[in-house]
Structures are given as structure tokens and as C-alpha cells.
Amino acid sequence: MPQSRLTGSRIRERRLFLGQKQSALAAAVGISAAYLNLIEHNRRRAGGKLLQDIARELNTDPRSLTEGAEVALLGALQEAGQRMPELAPELHRSEDLAGRFPGWSALVAAQHQRIRDLEQLVEALSDRLTHDPELAASLHEVISAVTAIRSTVGILTGGGDIDPEWKLRFMGNMRDEGRRLSNAAQGLVQYLDAGADRDMAPVVPGEELSAFLDRRDHHLPELEGLDGATPDQVAARIDALIAQVDSLQTSSAKDVTRHHFQQYVEDAAAMPLSVFQKVRTETAGDPSQLAVHFHQSLPAVMRRLAFVPAGDDHQAVGLVSCDGSGALFLRKPLPGFSLPRFGAACSYWPLYQALSRPGHPLRTVVEMPGPTPRRFLCQAICLPREALRFDLPPVHEAFMLIEPLDETRTSNLEGPVLPVGSSCRLCPRRECAARREASLLSADPT
């Protein structure tokens, strides 16, 4: 385990937090107080056994002393610094910043993430302005009314004699078109203001659902334990939960949410929470073994793994899914594995490899870029969404479960580690055959 430059500082902070004297800690681990003082001021390194002894006396994990700030936080600071290289930020001192000023570091990381979200939102809104049918219809209505008024005015001011009866007709037409223009302009303003009044407003129905699920960490205890309920009781429980979700403003969003909640109920009924967690522990969270035990499909097991609480015995996992077009429609993010909110994701994700091999499960170790690259175990599967038919082509869905790499569980995996990213615009890798657009970030210096 590589040691951080600030391991000594963290030892000192932990000792002071516990109210332990330096001499007492030194005596407990069998070194002099002077040598411990050098370690605490980062002038000497603590060896493997010594570090283990110090961690034991401080009642903490050695990893918390060597890694300190979350790797995801360091990665965010590194990316934030790479965004504006002309300012020459001291990227090599990002760990110092995170260790000494964790609050300010978290603020910088949060602002960096906010900027990324806003950039993606601007891109999505730009696409919306180009393709939104309601906006196009409103603009067409305004232009049509303006054109009609201009034509009528041109006739009335053309200089020729106009029969009084026709003149009254033209005046009536101009009055009616003026009203139509006023109504169309008012509707357009209301339509545009509706999105401006909400901070980071969702632009598609799925985003409204995602905002709610992210606040709940995707777990819905209200929908657990309904395996003995009637369809009407399930529908009533789902409608009651939907009524509590303030972010669901449109009927389309409510339909998407209702479908997701119904799927959640079915998964929870087939794999009850208490039994599922017990078998999850026995199988070390292996999706294949869980699928066999509960007689469920791999996608159903992956959803259940991602949506139930991890607890103390399991690591939190992420989940992403897409349809045959590659569009992401289900996202449960995981720290260190960024999922794009809008636009396309990395073409090298096993999720997309599974699309080309329906029915064939894939298990791959991937590495996300950053100052401290992080590795994840990704397990993906692609299956038809509905029963196969002769009169229609199959509609496939792919699912990918994401979990932090545990070397003890994956030592028998074959194949090289696959370098991946989030999306091309947010990936710093220089050499990538799958790149389709330039990155906003400079290349990773490491």
C-alpha cells in the first residue's frame, strides 16, 4: 500500500482527537517519542508493521492513515485543476490541500461537479432548442401570426383603393391575428419561464425520477414486503408514493415513475429484503449465484443489489442500464465512477459490449482515469425486454453492475484491465480509439 506524504499528519490528528499523549503512543508501539514526533511531522515514514501497530493503538484502519482524503475527492481536485491549466494550479499538491483543508477541498470539488452538471445541462438545453416539438410549434405560431399581420398591413397601406367592405374584413383579420400573436407569445414566455424557475430542472421525464431516487439512494422501503398484496393494494401504495414526490411535475414523468416502482415491487416480492441480504452475504454478492438461488434473471438481481441498503457487510454498488440505441435510462452512481447525466457514455464500458453479445454475461475489471486511478469490477448482461415475437425485432436492454474492486474476490479473473472513462468530453486519456470528440480536460499527467 503506497503511503501518502501526509500519513504523519493524520496520525497526529487522530492521536490529538483521542486525547492521547505522544509519549504514551510511542511507548505503546515500541519507539521513542522523538522518532514518533518525526513521523507525525512527515519527516520519517512509518513501516508496514509500525503503521499497523499505530493504527491499532489509535483504533482506526491503517488505510485511513495512508489514504486520508477520499480518492474521489483527490480526483475531483485534480480534474478541477486541469480545467484551467493557464492558471498553473499546483496539481502535485492537491493531496496537501485535501489533507489540510478538507472543507475547502470539498467546496472546490462540489463547485467543479456543479460546473460539469451545468455544462451538460447547457448541452442538453441546446439540443432541446433544436429538437423540442413544443418549442418549435410555439415559434411557428408566432412567426405565422407575424407574417399574416405584415401581409395585411402591406395590403392596407399599398396605396390602392380598397372597397370599404373588404377593408373591414382586412381590419378584422389583423385584429384576430394580433390576438393570436399575443396568445402565442404569452404561451412561449410561460413555457420558457417554467424551466428557468427551477434550479437544474430536469429536461426529460427520466430526470425527474432520477432526482427523487438519488435523494433516496434508490431504496424505497414503502414498496418492500408487498408480496402478499393484491394488485389494487400495490397500485394504491405506488400512487401514494408518487403523490409525495414533488419533482414529478408532468404526466410523462409519473408514467415513467409508476413503471419503475412496479418493477421495484416485483423484484422485492421475488427477493424479500431480509432473505436477500442473508443470501447475499453467503454468496459474497455474486449475481450469478443469487440469480440461481432466487430463480430470477440477472438484470433483476442487479437491480436488487443496487437498490437495497449495502449495510456494514457489503460495499455499495452502482448500476447503469441502456436500451438498444445506447441511451442510458437507469443510473445509480458510485463514488469514483462518474455516470454522465446527459449525452453518450464511454464506448468501452462493458455495458455496450454486452449489447453486441445478447445473453452472454460479461465480467471485466475497468480502470477510471485520475491522479489515483480507481479500479472497478463491472458485470454486464443484455437480454430482450419482452417475450420474443416473429412479427417484430427484439428490443434489448443491457445492465451493468459496478462495484469497487476487491482483489480477494477477483484474483481468478482473466484478461487485462480495461481503461475506460465517463464520456469523451470529461475523459483526459490521450490515446483512445473510441474518442469521438475533444475533451474539456487536459491529459492526465500520470
Automatic annotation (TrEMBL):
One of its GO terms (molecular function) is DNA binding. This is HTH cro/C1-type domain-containing protein. It holds the Pfam family ScfRs. Residues 11-65 form the HTH cro/C1-type domain. CDD domains: HTH_XRE (cd00093). It comes from the Bacteria.
